[in-house]
Known about the structure:
The chain starts with a helix and ends with a helix. It contains 11 helices and 2 strands. It is mostly helical. A hairpin with a 6-residue loop joins β1 (179-180) and β2 (187-188). The protein folds into 2 domains: 1-128; 148-274, no CATH class. The chain is 70% helix and 1% strand. It has helices spanning 2-16, 30-49, 57-74, 78-81, 85-92, 97-127, 134-147, 150-169, 197-213, 217-236, 248-273, and strands at 179-180, 187-188. Residues 95-101, 172-187 and 189-194 have low confidence and may be disordered. α5 (85-92) runs antiparallel to α6 (97-127). A two-stranded antiparallel ribbon has the order 1-2.
Amino acid sequence: MISLFLLLFAAASVVVGSDRVGGRLSRAPVRARLLVGVLVVAALGFLIGLPVLHRGVWGVVVVILVTIAWLCCGLVPRTWWERLPRFRQWEQAGRGASEVGTDQLDPLIRLVHAGLVLLAVSLCVVVSQPLRSQVAEMVAVIGIVVLLAVPANQVVADILAVARQSSRGSGEVVAGGCRPSPESGGQDEPGSSMRGGRWIGPLERILILLLASVEAPAAIAAIVAAKGVIRFPEISQDSQDSQGKTGQKAEEFLIGSFASWILAVLGAVIIHFA
């Protein structure tokens, strides 16, 4: 059952994150995206769960319903979250909804939403039986690979956003003008022809997953070291800002890199124990 969970959550996460990666689906209304997500999840659930994985009908239905519930939570309009008591307290304290809600509430909500996937998969690993067939293992690997692509990019970007807000709240000045690459803690310069972070992160995580599957820790250590060596010139040139603060790029690089590596390791652990 864990393999079906991973595949359906991967498909749902692509629909949830479609508004942040562009494309025709990203411009569709929330209801249309929700309808597409429900149809995709239901179709994959019945087509993969019954004839391919040979799971029971009720088990497949439960997995589909749980995934659809998670999908609905991810596509809830932000105006619904503004009705929460915590958000109203911010408004009463004079911290405008447009400023606080967008900058601070959204990344936290997305991180909690992503954490629900990890919780559900962990519970499924504990209570379900281990994978017994190569087909089930292949389905699980496909789900993990999809989750380590665009959805993992957004998770790392949200972690960086929360860390940046913490720095801003402690009085540190965060340099503007660059959006952090969602995977590694580096930055994609505005106007650059290629946003390398969106490609480097998924490729790095998938490569670590592959090396972990063949038990090659030395190769993983070499990748980690090579990444630090390649980014060292950029980090070492981290110039002082107007307040004399330094080290912003180094901090973002470390936070983003560790978050990306942890996600890759979690994927490998799930496949190993599943």
